[in-house]
Amino acid sequence: MKNTIVRKVATLEQLLGICNAHGASYTPSKASIQPTALRSLLELAQQKTEAVNVTRSVYALAVNARQQSFAGLPKLAAQITRIAAASEASLRDKEDARMVRRKFYSVRKKKSEVMADTQAGKAPAPKGARSTSSLDRGSMMENFQYLIQLVQNIPGYNPSEVEFKVETLKSVLGDLRTRCQAVAKAATDVSNARIARDQVIFGPDGVVESSSAARDYIRGKFGVVSRQTQQAMQSGNF
Length: 238
Hints:
Radius of gyration: 30 Å
Order of helices and strands: HHHHHHHHHH
Helix content: over 70%
Oligomer: single chain
Strand content: under 5%
Shape: rod-shaped
Largest sheet: none
């Protein structure tokens, strides 16, 4: 789709050059295909196409930032759990913390369970597959929030390291949410930019319609088999 859009804009640019080269011989009555209008349309199409590229780059950066933020979460959860286990927490609290920690890691089936699934005709899970119920970003944030609440209520959880203090962990959780919101906004911006671009390319009096109308005028003006028509019809074939 991207190459198609770029090609249509490039075709309009070449066609505009052809129309300008005809000078006074190119005098269509339709305002939207007069040289000035075609120039304005070309500039608008280029702007809208560039806007899509800009929003796509912002989206890619937002996705990368989100991925980096979530990548360290399993390790952080494990560290928090170990610090809690070294505190005056009850056995129940320690076990609850371990249970939450395990939710950040994939659970591999035992060999006997895999063999049973195979015998039952079930397709084996892809190598490295994880449980989406525990490892999707929404669940990871929910589990991390629960872990924070858990250690917050453990009287003996009072680490000296700033990165493991409850307030710091809450800031980490807030950052995760902010990263997800940034990706969602960036995705919407890309979608809106594409809608605006496609309206200029494919909409009424857009690039496609105006290019076709300009060619039709040249065919009518100079004749179907004229060199001018051949030149116009071949615009974009480069």
